[in-house]
Amino acid sequence: MDNNKHNDWTGAVRERLEGRELTPSDALWGRIGAAVPQAGAPRKVRRLAWGGAIGAAAAAALAGILFLRPAGTREDAGRIEVVPTTAAPMAEQRVIAEQDAVTEPAAATETQSVAPKRSAATIKMVEAPILIEEVPSNAGSVEVTNVQPKVEEYTQPAVAAVTKTDSGTVSSMTATEKHVDADEKAMSLEDYLNVEEKKRKPGRRLTAAVYAAGMVSTNALISNDLPVMQGNYAVSNNEKKGASLGSSTGFVSADSGISYNPETPLESNHFQYYTNNPGPDMNHSRPVSAGVALSLPLNDHLFLESGLYYSYLHSTSHTVSDQSLHFVGIPVKAGWRMGMSRRTSLSFSAGAKAEKCILALRDGQRFKEPGIQLAAVGSAAFQYDFTPHVGIFLAPELSYWFTKTELPTYNTENPFNLSLKAGINLTVGN
Amino acid sequence: MYDERQLSERCARGEKPACRELYDSCAGRLLALSTRYTGSQEAAEDVLQEAFIKVFSSISSFRYRGEGSLYAWIRRVVINQSLDWLRKEKRNGTVPIEETRTSAEVDEDEVAVVPEDVLAGMVEDLPDGYRTVFNLFAIDGYSHREIGKMLGIKEKTSSSQYFRARALLAGKIKEYIRNNG
User: A19 and B54 in contact by Cβ < 8 A?
Assistant: First the structure.
């Protein structure tokens, strides 16, 4: 084909000149060698990225601690509370002291032998005096019971009552056992209905989430363009338009001979250049992101969600050793949440997100990416609550990018993608 | 044959013999590369000096991705440095289309007739804007979109500059064959 001839001669020029060598002057190394530092400094951007990640992790940990702390300090009369292990010796002493008052002296040592078996949390009797009563049991035995076995909903397993018998055996019943017992035997109809209501209506509670997300899929979802995790930087918007006339395999379809840009026909040279020479494939790493989200309830099921996230896109090719784009984005979504059980819930949401490139670097050279990138998003989230205020969630999210950055990235090559978010949910209110 | 990974690690530790080894292994090719962009060997040496200083001061951030990746990285630094030089010298302007309206074309065999040095000289003698786009696109494999970003020009401008550069170069090759054939 005549066109091919035209294209080939520039390839011949390339072959002739690509490997050409010249001899540098002797003084050149002298000038370079004098300026060679002892060791290279780490790249500023990488430090920034690590700093951001550490900051986000620290913020998540701090938020978690703040939400978890009240569970250990709240003091409700007559409740059995979970206290940190550091308080355990004091709590044990108190229990033992109470027992000493009603049991024989030898029993104290036997009770102490029970204490080490306790788990990381132990029992503390708070505020209200513990009423201990001596109950005549079977011949010769003494039974110690707490007459106010009110158990907090999320109490850790711990000793709630100790029974001493004449035979010297000590048995115990854990708070969890009492909890189950209360659930199974003592739940009133009202309580039962409350639980069912909670399942049906998750409630109006403000939720903050800290999460990290990674891409799990690519444009393979909608086309068979290129293998997973690989795009080609030679394929621009226009090229894709032209290529789509030939086949769905974008880049390769140039062989069909369709000129991809009718306005400048000789542009097909470009096409040919890359088709005749496989050219520089650009490998795009999976984007990673982290962020915070705030979910505002509109009613028992509906909610609005927004937040702020940071996203990092990295690519390489044989001509570009290191391309990194840093984005900051804001998602806005509306969703529907429903309870599955007392601790689990499922939500679905849809909306849009906008992100702005705050830094684009190619081998240390800074590029401008002035536009704002827009995408439609839809996600489903499964949440498990450890406590009424703290839970974890896993959320697959489907995105479609309407706009593209000028530099080729994972998102420009794969506008339709699936990511997986995982994070911690912190809930405010009851 | 040197091992790029070990060499980059030694350079990162500031070992001068390793730096010299790396320099010796690629300075010749990189000088030719930079000369293609700047149009003069003297300017190319200045560019190469700055580029190597950058390479050695930031080599700890280089990530090895297989044999050849170190050279590709250095090559990229040299290209960037050459473009910076052109920018500073204000020699990255585009050339008005009217000045170079030509439709000369050659084929591979005709290119093969031209000696390497002469061919390189023809590229170096192209107007700065043409030369830059031709080098980036035809020889170093960048797309017009990337060239547009690198030079701060439109993608279409890059492609039209390339077309003209190509036509001008073809004319020079034809002329050489006419005079020496």
Answer: no
Q: Per-domain residue ranges for chain B? A: 4-88, 97-180
* Dihedral angle computed from the Cα positions of residues A233, A235, A237 and A238, in that order, rounded to the nearest 10 degrees: 140
Residue of A3, A22, A281 best to disrupt the B interface, most CBs of B under 10 A: A22
Among B61, B155, B164, the residue to mutate for chain A (most A Cβ within 10 A)? B61
Indicate whether this model's pTM tops 0.80. no
- The residue ranges of chain A whose pLDDT is under 50 are 1-6, 39-45, 65, 68-185, 219-280
- Buried/exposed code over A97-117 (b: 16+ C-beta within 10 A; e: otherwise): ebbeeebeeebeebbeebbee
Which residues of chain A have a CB within 8 Å of the CB of B56? 32, 35-37, 40
Q: What is the pLDDT of residue A313?
A: 93
| CATH fold for domain B97-180 | Arc Repressor Mutant, subunit A (1.10.10)
Q: Tell me, what's the pLDDT at A73?
A: 38
CB A277 within 8 A of CB B142: no
Tokens 């032998």 appear where? A113
Interface contacts (A, B; CB < 8 Å): 175
C-alpha angle with apex A128: A127 to A132, nearest 5 degrees? 130
- The CATH number of the structural domain formed by B4-88 is 1.10.1740.10
